[in-house]
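Hi support team,

I'm opening this ticket because the web form for multi-chain structure prediction keeps timing out on my end. I have pasted the exact lines I submitted so you can reproduce it. The total is 730 residues across two entries, so I didn't expect it to be a heavy job. Is there a limit I'm missing, or should I split the entries? Thanks in advance, R.K.
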Amino acid sequence: MLDIIRPTLLLSQSICKDNIRKMVRKAERHGLQLIPHFKTHQSARVGDWFKEAGVTAVTVTSVKMAEYFAEHGWNDITIAFPFNILEIDGLNTLASRVNLRIFVNSIETTVILKQKLKTPVRFYIEIDVGDGRSGVEATNFGQIKRILESVGNNPHLNFDGFYSHPGHTYNAKSPGEVEEISEKVVEKLRILKQHFKEEFSDLKIGMGDTPSCSLSENFDGVDNIHPGNFVFYDLVQHSLGANRLEEIAICLAVPIVAVHPERSEAIIHSGWVHQGKDSLRDSEGNIHYGFVVQLNQNGWSEPIPGAKVIKLSQEHGVLSLPGEVIQSIKVGDILGIMPVHACATAVMMGEIWTLEGERLEMMPG
Amino acid sequence: MLDIIRPTLLLSQSICKDNIRKMVRKAERHGLQLIPHFKTHQSARVGDWFKEAGVTAVTVTSVKMAEYFAEHGWNDITIAFPFNILEIDGLNTLASRVNLRIFVNSIETTVILKQKLKTPVRFYIEIDVGDGRSGVEATNFGQIKRILESVGNNPHLNFDGFYSHPGHTYNAKSPGEVEEISEKVVEKLRILKQHFKEEFSDLKIGMGDTPSCSLSENFDGVDNIHPGNFVFYDLVQHSLGANRLEEIAICLAVPIVAVHPERSEAIIHSGWVHQGKDSLRDSEGNIHYGFVVQLNQNGWSEPIPGAKVIKLSQEHGVLSLPGEVIQSIKVGDILGIMPVHACATAVMMGEIWTLEGERLEMMPG
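Hello R.K., no limit was hit. The queue was backed up. Here is the completed structure from your submission:
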């Protein structure tokens, strides 16, 4: 084990690589291209594990993240964000080196891209399949047609198809509901594909949030999936039924700095600057910021029943612990926190350590 | 103005320096030493402005932050966190270079410090004045006495007094309630001082959260105050009555990447990786993640009435905007977000730009 003296984000390579392999196999089984979203891990080294599993294309959220993964050998990158036309110079530079896909969601964006693009890129139109965040509504064929017409035959903008992120699966109350939402999304996308297929015979349909990609078995008409979180999984995904607890690949190791037996609490060095601020409600409706585990030679234990992070400030965390645990711990011990939201914990920590002691670099903040 | 193409944290030097000067003057008026908490800005350059205003001692949350400010010329540093004994090596190194104050909140911590400290440090006992987070309860004279006895006459551990963070002022529903809580805290600390003054005639009493330090005029018996957030202020502080909107010194400039007139919304490149995830409720009880302002030659405008950040994901933000604003903005425009929680926004962004175009370095992540 590592010599841990301050909050340290641990990763089980075996769990992580299993998560990658399982999603690769699922994509293969359904004839889908897996274009994983790398916003969760933001690590070139974790990216290498995807390469080893046969993945050749990735999804990112920003030009900056595209630059990072381009530097680390990725040549097929989708920037899954309504393109920020102010970053046109960065896009031109990067597009001259690697194959980029961007989102063109409006005529205004098309007009500026046609003026300023110097290198060909491929583009998706992002489709709002019910999440209500960004993209054109799935049934708004007229608007999609107008965007495509605004592009015309511009040699720098090549239409690739439709991309969708069904983020509303995160509001589901059960795994069954995730699947129901996912079914509806697939149906919307199938109709959309049908409509535009005649004119664009090669168009691709991309979808995929981690809950759908983990739980659904219906990808009828879908060509690409781009889940991200599954690489680590977390308690939010677990609450949706997307993963088992033993599939969570990261754990935040934290020092105990005070024990308060009189209130069955301990103070840890781990605040929102380490974990992120995401919370969940337990079965009694109380908010918590993570389950507590024991670290061991093989990584970490199952969650200690009844043990939770109940308060978070900038650098302090407060654990509620059962009496027998309170009696057995002392200042200077290390416990583990199973994260509520892996993307947030990874971003906040900015570096990850494997159980074997390898430091996994992440994209600089 | 700067050439802004992606989320950029702007700082008004004049507002920030005014905030510093006002708190310095308030401390002087009450005969207090201001030992500001630097966890909000984490910037050596902003630290310099405190030096220019006459401040000579600072408060931080971690050994790492102490190291950063020691490197930038600070020689009197309080690490305001239950001391993490696993970081004893870092403490020994740093204590050989600068004057450190640490927290000793338990006998377990004393025992280990007595074994392992190689250089003298001063220490506070942290007092829980009602926040229920860390420290010894203010009325638990017995426990305080036992900790002091466990230290004994150890030449490496010199008792300096009591430190308290009345974080429960953040639960107040009005400025009056902040003052009431603060009054009670001051009274508790006065009794504590009275009790231990005989044995320790030089003991100091430290308190201070930004709401109390901004609103209260009663610091009877207090020696030091250590607020942090006031350097920037934010919407949380404003909701407590601690500052006026025009005293907020930072603003997150964000590009518009999509406009959705049909739902009076726009999408910005600004998610929780930029702003942090803190929210407030507006007068109708709806959650929001910041007010929206126009940028101008002098910085930024008052909040646009009715304009708010209503959703946040990792890199996307969704603005709700009044019809006339929706009509006047377009993709590629820049708007400003007045932050809910300045500490979070500063930490997430990791760098700050003055309106004059100076980049203010922050502690590396």
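A quick check on our side: Chain B touches chain A through 50 residues (CB under 8 Å). Let us know if the file doesn't open in your viewer.
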